[in-house]
Amino acid sequence: MIEAIVEFFQNLTWETPLVQKTIQLVVLLVILIALNKLILFSMKKYLALVARRQEVQNLKRRETITKLMRSALRYVSVPIFIIFALPIVGIDPSTVFASAGFLGIVVGFAFQDLLKDLVAGFFIIIEHTYEIGDMVTIGSYTGTVRTLGIKTTRLVGYGGEVYTINNRDVANVINVSQAKSATVINRIGLSYKTDIVKLTQVIQEKIPQWKSQFPQMVEDPSWKGLVEIGDSALFFELHSKVQPMTQFQFKRDMNRELVQLCRDYDFDIPFQTITIEQEKG
User: Fold this and answer.
1) How many helices (H) and strands (E) does the chain have?
2) Domains of the chain by range and CATH?
3) CA angle in degrees (0–180, nearest 5) for 256-260-266
């Protein structure tokens, strides 16, 4: 068996049909890869030229379009390679497609969903619905867009989990990253004995300091004062507008600032207490 295999390879020459067909397939594959590289290179250069002319450097959009084009070329290249490779190996493509009528119908139905994903993917790009790096909520999924392909969109959640969503199923999108600013509401409950006038004065004095302390603020915070009279506390709110994607950390930092301010100026923060009475005897 081994001797037969060795003899087979020793008898191979450039005139052997198998060698010629293999070379033709390799050349076809190299040409398709080169065309894909050329198209992607041209697309990147075009996007960079448009960005320079418009004086806009939207790296996320350029990356999104490039990855979508790479995904589309991957899906298109495979059937093209098969169509051109069949004659090389001695198979007539028209005969194959004509004899595969039922299979063609099945494949046609399967490609309906792929076509829907393709169209939806291009509309996502054209309408700037979201781009790679944006934080979005799609239906019940929230995360950062990792990839946007011709068929699917992948999100990375807070815990590192990866959500894969078909482009045709993308609906009710909330894009946090596209907002010019995000409003953060810090709410704190204080004792009924709180001097509201003094509290307001202290907060107003602190606002310039907070503005310089937190560069993510896009404007001065707005002190809303007393917003609710609760069962065991008076509730106050501070509203701030910050840069997108910074609101989560900012809210934690401002909560800390408000608690520290109450401790420094002896504003009492009430907490729930439980009284237990024991009967005598």
Assistant:
1) 7, 8
2) 2-99 (no CATH), 182-264 (3.30.70.100)
3) 145
